[in-house]
Every structure is written in structure tokens, then in C-alpha cells.
Amino acid sequence: MSELHKEVSELERKSATAARLFDIRRIIGGLFVVYGVIVTIAGLNPSDADLEKAEGVHINLWTGLAMLALGLFFLVWMKLRPAEAPASPEQDQDPGPGTG
């Protein structure tokens, strides 16, 4: 295996790792989970004034739980369908006759 081929393989591996690391689903899912936990905790013991404003609905609790569910959906989606690095231009082209 040539030195250039090893270098290209290493760069492709790093590119795939970077694509998974900066997957937007991880950021969105993580933020929704964090904020969902905060809002759910705030909704566990609402004051009478808060319940009166929301017409008796535990709005913080329900919103927090919905945010948790959405955040977990994004994180599970990311685990089930991981991001793939974009294909290199060399892989997209036909190598032509006499190669391979």
C-alpha cells in the first residue's frame, strides 16, 4: 500500500469522524433534552398563580415532556441512521477501462 493511499485513507476516516461529531441532530437533540428536563422540573410543582394563568393546565410539565420526547427522538434517529461523510470525487467517477 503506497504512502499516499494511506494518507488519503486517514483523511477520509477523519472526515467521517468530523461528519458524525458535528451532526446537527446531536446539537438539536441535546438542547431539547436539556431544556426539556429544566422545564419539566419547573412544571412538577406549579404555583397557584401559574395554574391560574394557564387555566388549570400544567403547561410547563406538558411542554417539558414534549421537549424531552423530541430531543430523545433526534438522538435515537442519530444513533439509528449515523451521518456518512460525503463521497470523494474519485469515488464518483468511472475509473475507465483497464483499471481495477
TrEMBL record:
Recorded protein name is DUF202 domain-containing protein
Species for this entry: Streptomyces violaceoruber
Specify the superkingdom. Bacteria
Which keywords accompany this UniProt record?
Membrane, Transmembrane, Transmembrane helix
UniProt KW Membrane keyword: yes
Q: Which residue spans traverse the membrane?
A: 27-47, 59-78
